[in-house]
Amino acid sequence: MMIKWLGHSAFQITTNHNLRILIDPFISNNPVSPVTVEELTADLILVTHGHQDHFGDTLEIANRTRALIVANHEHSLFLSKQGLNAQGMNIGGTVEVQDIEVTMVNSTHSSDMDFIEEIGAGGSSCGFILKLENGRKIYHSGDTGLFGDMKTVIRDVYEPNIALIPIGDLFTMGPREAAIAADWLSPEVLIPMHYNTFPAIEQNPMEFAEMVESLNTDIEVVILEPGEVYEE
Ligand code: NI
Ligand code: MN
Questions:
Q1: Which residues make up the environment of ion ligand 1, defined by Cβ < 5 Å?
Q2: Is the per-residue pLDDT at 72 higher than 90?
């Protein structure tokens, strides 16, 4: 299984059975993207919310690849009207896509569809838990502040092995809150995201890693450069 960071909150996950998953594919306006939109392929696109730095190039990629888009109900209505293959769901639900399970979980953020001119209501923002065919569970939190369900619902119920969480501050948790989130989630592997895309969310990920290390847990913080891959 490979998790490639495309900068910001965009990830490309390839499972051992070669299912190609894109999460929040913000590519063409992403100043740190290591890839072009045209070279991306996908079977499944997950969208955490309607902000353009997450919805990104979903329309272009889905049109070209005919990938299934899993998003909240409001987004799926919009996407279906564009003739795309969308599966709507809501927080607490799980859908099976080929041999993986996708569960939508809470996040504390907003979700208006700011990628369309008239700005539509975009339902609730969310995170996702992906349960892969080998049993490994990946949590992508989307944009979020710190919230107590990370400790109870997300940790206790879903037990993620790998967590992808924001550390950029301003629009999401900053390093201080993200270190607490790391403790609450206690994954084996933690990959920080949503930082150093723009000056407003500049952070030193090494300082964040030291904060997590000082908690004396077994969490391994994996700091990727855009384009780098975590593999297991
Ligand atoms: Ni956002
Ligand atoms: Mn964002």
A1: 51, 143
A2: yes
167 CA distance to ligand 2 middle (Å): 11
Average pLDDT over residues 158-173: 98
Locus of tokens 């030291």: 210
Task: Give 51 Cα–ligand 2 centroid separation in angstroms.
Answer: 7
Residue 132 CA: distances (Å) to CA of 27, 48, 78, 138, 174: 25, 18, 28, 8, 29
Distance (Å, whole) CA 69 – CA 108: 22
User: In 3D, which of 105, 99, 74 has the Cα closest to residue 88?
Assistant: 74
Query: Which bound ligand lies closest to the C-alpha atom of 125?
Result: 1
Residues, CB within 5 angstroms of ligand 2 (ion)? 53, 143
CA 226 to chain centre: 14
Round the average pLDDT of the chain to a whole number and report it. 97
Residue 90 makes CB contacts below 8 A (sequence gap 6+) with 72, 73, 104, 123, 124
Ligand 1 centroid to 110 CA: how many Å? 7
Residues 180 and 194: their CA atoms lie apart, in Å, by 17
Ligand 2 midpoint to CA 54 (Å)? 6
Distance in Å, CA 172 to ligand 1 centroid: 8
Global pTM value: 0.97
Are residues 8 and 194 in contact, defined by beta-carbon separation less than 8 angstroms?
yes
The reported pLDDT for the residue numbered 117 is: 73
